[in-house]
Design goal:
This protein is α/β, with parallel strands linked by helices. It has 2 domains: 87 residues, no CATH class; 112 residues, no CATH class. Helix content is 33%, strand content 17%. It is built from 6 helices and 10 strands; from the N terminus they run αββαααβαβαββββββ. Helix 3 crosses helix 4. The chain is globular.
């Protein structure tokens, strides 16, 4: 009898101590992923998130997608898959900016955003709407960053008569659209920014280096020009049929 009393007393002590150590659980603790996470590539470390030719680091963390998996699962074109990636990153950036200090987005919130953006793409609400003008003038933005003389030369060029021949499109491998708009608020042009680049090619195959395939967004009959202040043309990152010129 005495042994039974000791056993019951021990159970009582254990249950009391255990209840003190237990922490209240939130809804997120019980959340089961819908599987969207399989479309997210691993985050790139800050020290490795740069473009060597442009000579710039990406200051914002970009969630790159497994384009091959997206194309297969949702029947998306290469263009649509990249539009989804870009729109998701823009939406995620806006969402994080509205969070309380010290709080991070949850997996559930990211997955809800993914589905919301997917519906937008299906409704043809896209991140980058390519101009349909006969001539398009791509202008490399990264090469002028941090250099006042080069930045002035860029702005002068965008206001020159050359731009009367075609519509300008700024190109940045390192900056997001939001960053460009904040740094150059007076440059009211279309942009191809870091959110639209991928390690996947138009066939959905992963290849070395981030790239943007021009031919997947512009029509063959359009005349495409790529303007730079350098003699170096970033053909590995900006791929397709276009004529490179200096200004």
């Amino acid at each position: 009898m005495k042994n039974i009393q000791i056993f019951i007393f021990s159970l009582f002590i254990f249950s009391c101590s255990s209840s003190k150590d237990m922490k209240p659980r939130t809804v997120e603790d019980y959340y089961v992923s819908t599987g969207v996470v399989k479309y997210f590539l691993s985050d790139i470390p800050a020290w490795a998130s740069f473009n060597q030719k442009a000579g710039c680091f990406r200051n914002k963390n970009i969630r790159y997608f497994n384009i091959e998996a997206l194309m297969k699962s949702y029947g998306l074109s290469y263009n649509q898959a990249l539009q989804l990636q870009a729109s998701f990153n823009e939406g995620l950036s806006e969402f994080i900016a509205g969070l309380d200090q010290g709080r991070s987005q949850t997996l559930k919130e990211e997955e809800l955003l993914f589905y919301k953006v997917s519906e937008k793409i299906s409704s043809k609400i896209i991140f980058f709407d390519p101009p349909v003008f006969e001539r398009v003038n791509f202008v490399w933005l990264d090469e002028v960053l941090g250099d006042e003389k080069k930045e002035k030369k860029l702005k002068d060029f965008l206001n020159s008569s050359t731009m009367d021949l075609g519509v300008p499109v700024l190109v940045s491998f390192c900056m997001t659209r939001d960053e460009v708009e904040k740094k150059f608020p007076d440059l009211n042009t279309k942009m191809i920014t870091a959110e639209l680049f991928s390690i996947y090619d138009s066939k959905g195959k992963a290849t070395p280096g981030f790239k943007f395939e021009v031919d997947q967004f512009f029509k063959p009959e359009q005349k495409l020009y790529f303007y730079t202040q350098k003699n170096l043309v970033p053909s590995d990152e900006f791929q397709g049929t276009f004529k490179a010129l200096n200004y």
